[in-house]
Write a structure and sequence with these properties.
The protein has 451 residues and is α+β, with helices and mostly antiparallel strands. The protein contains 13 helices and 23 strands. The strands form seven sheets. A seven-stranded mixed sheet has the order 3-9-10-16-13-12-11, sandwiched between helices. Helix 2 (42-61) packs across helix 9. Bound molecules: glycyl-adenosine-5'-phosphate.
């Protein structure tokens, strides 16, 4: 259990803001919702897309030693035997015979031992009603083709990584990459989690951004350290506060792993520090197993030295949804506004990450201001998302944009129609500067470009 964080618990307020302002909705809400599955609304989809674009840029576009792929979600069922997921991707489960609730057998809120008379249900409080723990596989099963029989079972992938391993040689040979090199992809993964929760922190359908870096055995430790450092810098570059990030080395390693560390973010309250990314030295386990199960060689041919070997793999694996949640938690603040009676709620998202880059506001709905504001908004839309708002007092319009993290507010006032300038308000400093209307796009572009 994480100890209580020095940062406040803002989760409840965030869930409400996310729904009210169109970031994230419960899936199938009108039917009462689907357990731990969420839909991204107009602002949420932009925010998460910005996260994924930043990852894709850092990991694929800005490098010449990593290639991108987009593998299918459905894979040959043998993949999951080779990967160890059929046999080992399990959690121990216990059922309460009294209230019919289901728990992970290692749930810290259970008193006593499940399956014995002293095991106590944490919900209904009955003693001795918790069943003997049994293993529950977290993979979702479905059927391929028209017949629902065991031979037709396929799984929704529980991680994107296996799509990379099975394509290792396809990518290496088609791109003629030389080791060390990596393969990256972003995609959906599915896990039938027993204890999902904390909003989009642990869900049953989520997106992963994974990269497998194939290296020569013996050089793996250096690559592991390199990727650990790189990935931490990436999280900081998104604007996550450095003092809310830390490394957590794994105390116990999976049988195939030679080293593993998590990057943790402090989500505040009782959730505290939790994993957002894992960096793993997976040795030659995965390629070795796929060789064994497929009967196909997955060796790299080292031409200069005329030798073949199965590379080791350094994996970086981060959740797009979990990173999005970390950014929202990190950005949320409530504050007083000097000289005003009402406070404000702000999402202090980095301008490059914010879903809308500028609000455009005619001060009043007359004297040519709406027309000029529309022209400014249309011009800005050529480069980035903007929101045009002519409804209500200007202060309220600013507040509405502050609450969704819009970094700039552009107001077209009486002076604008005279001299062709507009005011640009900075979300955080509240400072306003006058800028020529035809220069606003460049002015904002310069300030939203990632570092
Ligand atoms: N291929 C390695 C792998 O999948 P993992 O630690 O199980 O490793 C990596 O997952 C990342 O995926 C986690 O750090 C987290 O950000 C995200 N993730 C895993 N399970 C998740 C879930 N149920 N809901 C949301 N994100 C999840």
């Amino acid at each position: 259990m994480a100890s209580v964080s020095a940062h406040p618990d803002v989760m409840e307020k965030l869930v409400s803001l996310c729904k009210r302002r169109g970031f994230i909705f419960q899936s199938s809400e009108i039917y009462g919702g689907t357990g731990s599955v969420w839909d991204y609304g107009p602002l949420g989809v932009e925010l998460k897309k910005n996260v994924k674009d930043r990852w894709w840029h850092a990991m694929v576009r800005a490098r010449d030693d990593i290639e991108g792929i987009d593998a299918a979600i459905l894979m040959h069922p043998r993949v999951w035997e080779a990967s160890g997921h059929v046999a080992g991707f399990t959690d121990p489960l216990t059922d309460c015979k009294n209230c019919k609730r289901r728990f992970r057998a290692d749930d810290p809120t259970i008193k006593g031992t499940p399956g014995t008379p002293d095991g106590q249900c944490p919900v209904c409080g009955s003693k001795g009603t918790l069943s003997e723990p049994r293993l529950f596989n977290l993979m979702f099963k479905t059927f391929m083709g028209p017949v629902e029989e065991s031979a037709a079972v396929v799984y929704l992938r529980p991680e994107t990584a296996q799509g990379i391993f099975v394509n290792f040689l396809n990518v290496q040979q088609s791109t003629r990459q030389k080791i060390p090199f990596g393969i990256a992809q972003i995609g959906k993964a599915f896990r039938n989690e027993i204890t999902p929760g904390n909003f989009i922190f642990r869900t049953r359908e989520f997106e992963q951004m994974e990269m497998q870096f194939f290296v020569e055995p013996g050089t793996d430790e250096g690559h592991f350290d390199y990727w650990k450092a790189q990935r931490m810098e990436w999280h900081k570059s998104l604007g996550l506060a450095p003092d809310r990030l830390r490394y957590k080395p794994h105390d116990t390693l999976a049988h195939y792993a030679r080293a593993a560390a998590d990057i943790e973010f402090d989500f505040g309250g009782s959730l505290g520090f939790q994993e957002i990314e894992g960096i793993h030295n997976r040795s030659d386990f995965d390629l070795g197993r796929h060789q064994e199960y497929s009967g196909k060689k997955l060796e790299y041919f080292d031409q200069p030295n005329n030798r073949r070997f199965v590379p080791f793999v350094i994996e970086t694996s981060v959740g797009a949804d979990r990173t999005t949640l970390a950014l929202l938690v990190n950005a949320y603040r409530e504050e007083e506004v000097p000289g005003e009676s009402e406070g404000r709620t702000v999402l202090g998202l980095a301008p490059s990450i914010a879903p809308i880059k500028a609000g455009v506001f005619p001060l009043v709905k007359k004297d040519g201001m709406p027309e000029m504001a529309s022209r400014v908004a249309d011009d800005l839309r050529r480069s980035f998302p903007v929101f045009y708002d002519d409804g209500g007092a200007i202060g309220r319009r600013y507040r509405r944009q502050d609450e969704v993290g819009t970094p700039f507010g552009i107001t077209i006032d009486g002076q604008s129609t005279q001299d062709g300038t507009v005011t640009v308000r900075d979300r955080d400093s509240l400072q306003q500067v006058r800028v020529a209307a035809d220069q606003v796009r460049t002015y904002i572009d310069e300030r939203i470009t990632p570092p």
